[in-house]
Design a protein that fits this description.
The complex is a heterodimer. By secondary structure, chain A is mainly beta. In chain A, 0% of the residues lie in helices and 61% in strands. Chain A has strands at residues 3-7, 10-14, 19-26, 33-38, 45-50, 56-59, 62-66, 70-75, 84-94, 97-103, 107-112. By secondary structure, chain B is an all-beta fold. Chain B starts with a strand and ends with a strand.
Amino acid sequence: EDQVTQSPEALRLQEGESSSLNCSYTVSGLRGLFWYRQDPGKGPEFLFTLYSAGEEKEKERLKATLTKKESFLHITAPKPEDSATYLCAVRTNYGGSQGNLIFGKGTKLSVKP
Amino acid sequence: NAGVTQTPKFQVLKTGQSMTLQCAQDMNHNSMYWYRQDPGMGLRLIYYSASEGTTDKGEVPNGYNVSRLNKREFSLRLESAAPSQTSVYFCASSEAGVLDTQYFGPGTRLTVL
């Protein structure tokens, strides 16, 4: 069964304290891994797409990496405005239809000043 | 561009009542999606429309119907609401098909009493 697991469920950091969020997956043929940011009461906001092991993408203080079994979202010197829930999703085949996303439950990040 | 818009933002229904959630996108995207998000669970796909004129079931379609009204609009209907349908509903769209990045709307928070 295709599955996406994110860890930790919640992470509290001090401003400037770098860390990583994990997304592990078991799918029958990865066709893309996506990272989204979700603020309370809002819809997910697209951050990155990764397609193959070894691929990396960066945006400001965020860097996403991908291996054959997991992805990491590295946060360097975070600021309070980085506080949000970060969602990971993988694209695979579902129910005979190609391209649907399977989401993890998310990691809630809190950055204290 | 407004991106993906959803109406209403909040709704309270009584068990057995019906309602339609509206979604529109102004990005000229071909594919549109409806998800639900429940506490402690990842986003789950209800229905999607790969292109105008087509709709397909996702992971949790029971109790819902959809209509792809035109290229811009995709509605979700609850014919006889049940408390189990209390959730936050998100609409999303993607450009060239189900293989492209999905962009989400702000969500509709639905409570069924």
